[in-house]
């Protein structure tokens, strides 16, 4: 089951509203989970990259529904073209 998800080094970092993305193919599967580094402890769950990205700031794994970002494939491609990949 571990091969269903990308490795830790393929995690998305969320910093000040910008996506810093590694070179990783989001089309491999429709269910992705990433460790998110935003502040101290956070989790990022992406279920189909076109769906709503929910951020948990308290580190407990509970989704904070008041904090949501929509990450579309177009936005990801734009970030890559701007050189915001890691």
What key attributes describe this structure?
86 residues, mainly beta, 4-stranded antiparallel β-sheet, two-stranded antiparallel ribbon, 1 helix
Describe the structure.
It is a single chain. Helix content is 10%, strand content 35%. It has 86 residues and is mostly beta strands. The chain has one domain. It has a four-stranded antiparallel β-sheet, with no helix packed on it. A two-stranded antiparallel ribbon has the order 1-2. The longest helix has 9 residues, at 73-81. The N and C termini lie far apart (26 Å). The model is unreliable at 1-72 (pLDDT under 50). InterPro entries: Semap_dom_sf, WD40/YVTN_repeat-like_dom_sf.
Averaged pLDDT: 41
Q: Major sheet: size, sense and barrel closure?
A: 4 strands, antiparallel
Shape: globular
Oligomer designation: single chain
SSE succession: EEEEEEH
Backbone structural class: mainly beta
Distance between the termini: 26 Å
Work out the helicity level.
Answer: 10-25%
Instruction: Report strand %.
Output: 25-35%
Number of domains: 1
What is the β-strand count?
A: 6
**Cα-based radius of gyration, to the nearest Å:** 12 Å
Which consecutive residue ranges, at least 5 long each, have pLDDT under 50? 1-72
Number of helices: 1
For the biggest β-sheet, the strand order reads 3-4-5-6
InterPro entries: Semap_dom_sf, WD40/YVTN_repeat-like_dom_sf
